[in-house]
Design a protein that fits this description.
It contains 13 helices and ten strands. The chain is an alpha+beta fold. The strands form two sheets. Strands 2-1-5-4-3 form a five-stranded antiparallel beta sheet, with helices on both faces. It has a five-stranded mixed beta sheet with strand order 7-8-6-9-10. The two termini are 50 Å apart.
Amino acid sequence: MFLSEALAQRILQEVRKLMDEDFIIVNTEGNIIASTARDRIGSFHEGAMIAAHEKRNVLLTEQDESQLQGVKAGINLPIMFQHHVVGVIGITGNPEKVTPFGSLLKKMTELLIHENYYKEQVEWKTRAVEGLVFDWIHQHTDSENFQERADMLGIDLSLPRRSTIIHLRNMNADKEPVVLDFLKSRLLPTKNDIFARLGSDRYVLLEVAMSSDEANRITHRKTSFLKWKQELEKRYGITMTAGIGQPVSREEVNISYEQAERALLVADKNDGIFFDEELGLEMCIQEISHATRSDFITRTIERIKGEKDLIDTLIIYFKNDLKIKAAAEDMHVHINTIHYRFKRIEALTSLDPKVFRDLMTLYMGLYFLEEQTKEKHVRA
């Protein structure tokens, strides 16, 4: 463990909140790296070097000030970490008066160093897991080093996995720790599940895939995700969407990840949670370019885009599973009104809503128009 100037300064600031005495923090070479008296920073302290090398407390009197380099009356105490001296803390003043503070200050300092060490360890492991997951989902797994890294992190590469990509909107630095704790406590039921950051607002979960009754598991998992989604919105104002891939072997984790990406595209557009297994038409539509979609709208429903009653009629007709009577009741109009509007649609688009092929073309045009409108709204 290396006692850096930054950590020493942080310790000084924390301790300063609890005591008014002047004190210094010194490295094992005897150089002062933090001090309540800033003009002492960088100077050599012979008494602290003795305390560090001999691993003992050193009392300093006014007489010592003229005999030892850079010292003032007080007490110097070695700072221990894992049975090693990592620095020295010194309190300035009458040794008899400041000595009672020494043990307390030493213990506080050592606790802060332990806290910082474990925080660094957690951060290191988090970064290491993120690096391993990145390589895994992008198929950079051929080297022996990949297996060694996994072993060091305690990650079992042999288990089947299912990829989930979680997108969190309205996140900020203050909310992040509590929101991630919330998610991890629910998403990581076993030690073999892996959670890692993908970017500023995206996270990936590589959970162990269960082989039993997969259909029921999907239903249960989706119910759980929707519940967590509601809790996040209610508690923290966070909007969560998620795309979930299919269970695969270790060698195919990248495929499950690509499926999760595809499902997330649909989830983001519908503010929901989607499994890849649920995707039907959406799976094909995601492969169609924006330019082709725009061109399709132009060729099909461009002339009725501004006719709200016609667009609404089609939307509600589809919503009611092509039942004209139900659509009329839903719109509070007479059935004949629906028939009239269908004729109007055919006149403007050359597509007859009563002909299946034309009806499918109208549906696709409406679908692309809705997606286009959503994207414009998001950009705005």
